[in-house]
Design brief:
5 strands
């Protein structure tokens, strides 16, 4: 059955207009993005298949063009549109944390870093450089590694902090395994970075571990 034959209250677009985007399921949101289905499948049916093939909404966001184009009903145009949507979301969050003190909007910082790092096939270690008022100076991917580990060099982090004249830093790295839990090595590295940065009077305010749809905060766990 085509979506146009559904009751008005069940149609994704009408439902969004009446109740807001938060009332829609992942499949309904993807269906609005897709706009149309394919022969024998409505946009919602196709959206469910896309999510099933990818595994989750976050996995869809990190899927390669090759992966998406292999799904019937999708192609290069949809991949380009999806990348534009993701980039707009990242920039909007980046503006939000950049227009005020980062610690005044901790959820925005978490959401930005989660969106930036989730679903990566390899480990990425990033830093958010802040001034004395905790305003964002820059966000950089500092190191990139393999599926299981990344080599992080405190001396290079100190160089970047001096380059930005930063007063504080928030770190983040992802776990491609999808588990947002710090390892003992993560804790040791964070302590090493704290000690190295303390020598130039730069504070480490937090370290997020991104895994799947979650982001664990060292500060909230009392690990800093």
């Amino acid at each position: 059955m085509a979506i146009t034959d559904w009751p008005l209250d069940d149609r994704p677009r009408e439902k969004l207009l009446a109740k807001g985007a938060e009332s829609l399921s992942d499949a309904e949101l993807v269906a609005i993005f897709l706009r149309t289905g394919i022969r024998g499948k409505s946009a919602v049916d196709l959206a469910r298949e896309v999510l099933k093939r990818c595994g989750s909404l976050s996995a869809l966001f990190s899927a390669s063009g090759r992966q998406l184009c292999a799904i019937p009903g999708l192609g290069a145009a949809k991949y380009v549109q999806l990348q534009a949507v993701i980039e707009m979301a990242q920039r909007a969050l980046r503006e939000k944390i950049g227009n005020g003190a980062a610690l005044n909007s901790p959820h925005s910082v978490r959401d930005y870093l989660r969106l930036k790092l989730q679903g990566r096939p390899h480990e990425v270690f990033a830093g958010v450089f802040l001034d004395a008022q905790n305003r964002v100076l820059a966000v950089e991917e500092l190191f990139r590694g393999t599926l299981t580990q990344t080599s992080v060099y405190p001396r290079e982090v100190v160089k970047r902090a001096l380059h930005h004249n930063a007063a504080a830093l928030i770190f983040a790295h992802n776990h491609p395994s999808g588990v947002a839990e710090p390892s003992r090595a993560d804790e040791m590295l964070t302590n090493q970075l704290k000690q190295a940065l303390a020598l130039i009077d730069v504070k480490v305010l937090d370290h997020f571990v991104v895994g799947g749809d979650s982001a664990m905060s060292f500060a909230e766990r009392g690990l800093l």
